[in-house]
Amino acid sequence: MQECRTETGDAAAIVAEEVESLGLSLKQAAPVPAGSFLAGAAWGIFAISIWAGWFVSTRLNVTSDLSVYDLVALRFGVAALLLIPVTVRLRGGVGLVGWRNEIAIFAGSGVSYSLCATGGVAFAPAAEGAALTPGVMPMATALLAVLILKERLSPRQLTGLAFILAGVVVIGGLGLFHGAHREWIGHILFLAGAFLFAGYTIALRRSGLSGLEATAVVSLWSCAFYLPVYIFALHPRLLEVPPTSLLFPAFYQGVLTNVVSLAAYGRAVATLGPSRAASFAALIPAVTAFLSMLILGEFPSEADWVGIACVSAGVYLASGAPLPWKSVQSRR
């Protein structure tokens, strides 16, 4: 997900504009031929695998040779360099969307969010992070949409959010009562990150910016404000570790999550439609859990698996993805 922001919210914003520019309705869910469905599903799985892998790779980095602060600096530095053309076109983004939206966008996808998401992985397993950050984002966004935009939630959305809340309670609720374990700190950071990103989503919608434009502006100003603090106060390690140790995190944080995953998700949306493509986000917690077992040797507990299943089901329902039994009925 650039972290999991990267991930679902920014991708959805960018892709929605691309789909609308092609004259397609975001409300349509026309049947997809079998061959096209397989191709679209492959692109969708590829994108969510990158987002799920972010949690695993970040967990691996923060438990070895790099700190949370190093990864945040690396992420914004690489993103700012990649998106210089966009930033120049926007003239730095100053005064584009009003100061309230600017603060919400910066806080919800900038240093604050990044420190929460990356810091949470330093305390808690990657699989729990995937369930409690991208999994909770739909619930947090829906709550803010009701409060700020006065939107109404459908019964299906409410059902999905109830599943997500149940999963959060299963995964994080018990951890708050186990002071001997530090996982609860990670749980709080994951949830804080989810709500910060929800504020970013609402502000992005009101601003009229694309996800790519917002990412470019946030990366620029994050570098401007964060890098001096990082260099002079946070004991940077980037110059102390071998350069080869920086290649993979720089590539993953700055290229795969910011560019490749968005392009792959865009292909999935163009082939399958927005609702079907968004349904693949429900796989992020489970894919992260499997990658954690294979790469990190972290095996979720039985309670974690229950929570992951609840969150995944809730994300699928809340996304508006097609229900299998309704598809069968419509063909009769």
Fold and architecture overview:
The chain contains 16 helices and no strands. The protein has 332 residues and is an all-alpha fold. It has one domain (3-24, 32-331). Helix 3 crosses helix 12. The longest helix has 30 residues, at 243-272. It is globular and about 55 Å long. The model is unreliable at 5-29 (pLDDT under 50).
Mean pLDDT: 79
| Shape annotation | globular
Instruction: Note the run of SSEs as H and E.
Output: HHHHHHHHHHHHHHHH
Helix- and strand-based class?
A: mainly alpha
Task: Give a count of the beta strands, DSSP E runs of length 2 or more.
Answer: 0
Helix content: over 70%
Low-pLDDT stretches are 5-29
Number of helices: 16
Q: Please give the radius of gyration in angstroms.
A: 19 Å
Q: In brief, what are we looking at here?
A:
This protein is mainly α and 332 residues long. It contains 16 helices and no strands.
What descriptive keywords fit this protein?
332 residues; mainly alpha
Layout: helices, strands, pairs:
Elements: H1 3-21, H2 34-62, H3 68-82, H4 84-89, H5 99-109, H6 111-123, H7 126-132, H8 137-148, H9 155-173, H10 183-207, H11 211-233, H12 243-272, H13 274-278, H14 284-296, H15 302-318, H16 324-331
